[in-house]
Amino acid sequence: MKRNRYISFLLILLGVGLLAAAVGRTGPINRMRQEYRLAITNPFEEESMRSEFRIPTVALFTFRSLAIDYLWIRADSLQHDGQYFDALHLARLICALQPHLQSVWDYRSYNMAYNISVSMPTWPERWNWVEAGYKLLRDEALVFNPRSPLLHERLGWIFEHKIGAIADDAHYYYKLRLASDIMPLLAPVDSEDIARDSRITNEELEALAAVTHSWQALLEDPDIAALVDKFRQAAPALAKEEALFEALIQFRMKPGDYPPALHQVIADYRGTKVLRTLDLFVRAQELRKKWKMEPQKMLDLNRKYGPVDYRQGEEARLSLDWRLPYSMALYWGTEGLRYAEPATDPALRLHRTVYHSLQFMYHYGYLQLYNFQPVTRITRGEAGQEIFEKKKEFDLRIFISQDLSMFPVAFQATQDVLQEFIDKGERIPKGVEHGSINLAKSGIMSFYLAGYKTWAQKYLNYLRERFADQAEFRVDLEAFVAEEMRRVVQDTAPKNTNDMINSFLRESYYLYAIGNDDLASANEQHAERLHKLCRMRFAESGERLFLPDFPDMRWLGMKNFLLDTVVGSEVKELLLGRLKREQPETYEKVIAALREEIKGSGNEPSGGS
Description:
Number of domains: 4
Oligomer: single chain
Largest sheet: 2 strands, antiparallel
Strand order of the largest sheet: 1-2
Number of helices: 28
Helix content: 55-70%
Number of strands: 6
């Protein structure tokens, strides 16, 4: 009996000693975590996360693992049965129990952005779930797992594929909402043309990156403190910092929501250094806190991946268009590469995120905004009566088309990936190599048709050198373009040729209306070449196909474009306005034809006035 007491006593002493030794190792372990960049800010310091994540984590204690296993199996079963909402709630509980489990964050965000969103009946409801999916990863998952290549790649994928691609029939609405959400952070508060100024410049990003991070330090400037007081006097509801910041951001998009006194303060300080400094601080803080994006990192990406300024030469870089989902995907893809081991599968997937985003910017990266006009709102008075009020705010429309200035950057990114395989002595995947060839062909055609023949020749020379054994590249530029066009026609059924030609003409009218003359001309040339080749091919083969003369097709196409109810009235007004100023004879012919077409409808065109 005595012996057992001694053994128990010794075991207790040993346990206390081991516990004391473990406590003594806490300091060195924490220093190692700092050295290897494993230490992160405690997420439970935020009130919003404390109750949701900390309580269930502590409450279950050692039974937490069993609970996670059960909930994970149950959530997977619900997912398999298509019960996405129920699975989503269980997945959220799993995140609360194990916030460092990356796969459950991935599972939840995919469910929101893809499965649940498409079950919604309206586009705004779909967007709410898509937005919730990327915010979950950006605002929560990466707080707990800041060094996760997987979560960075998944976040980039939602921006690149769900919002940026065309698989979802609501993709256009998603792009519009994303652009309108971030636009206020890109243009100055006193901007008179937010459509132009929201395509932020490198100089503007430099200013955002340089402004102080401290609100208290900013208020030490008496001029800024005086301006803040004037804002608060003009609108007492802006007494709190958060309300003031929100007003200075949203004023750009919804000026009608704010009192005349606030408008007067901004008008009085328009163009001054003090308003400029305050505005820069508010926008930089919003980028960091709401969008989790650093202005300096955005600037670095501009300098590396920005579109080429053809006026200055290939080395000159303009700013990326940060209103696009592809720029967001690029940002998070490059962030993830900081934590991915080189030459691993996560690194390759993140590289794909980067160069696919750049290719999307080449194909669909020229974003135009139009239709800034007052809108009428319906509100209800105290007695329930309807009150109509006009308030000036953005009713946005966007048009997205090819951006030739992004081609050299996108092409170089694919070459960098190819070079990595060559340097490692590994076989280049066929998909990557074929993709680079098709991208080069597309660029050659686009440059040639837009009149940039020097650039077209440059990339044809590249293909000729890299694939010296392939005869299709050992021809001059004109012959190469003609052959590519012929191949397009050869692969097209006769019944579709008319539609193809009209689609290029339709695109050219859109582009001409919004002022992108280079691409408008390129599309028209493409249509004319297709018309010529189609006539030659089908005449030689004896197939029966009626194609009007090209001038007639162009004229009929323009008339149909202006009568098409799918085309927005704003675009039609822009097109008619340009015709009236620049091609008055064509304008008169168009107006006469339209009046004849819609005679008796009482809906005559306004003529761009």
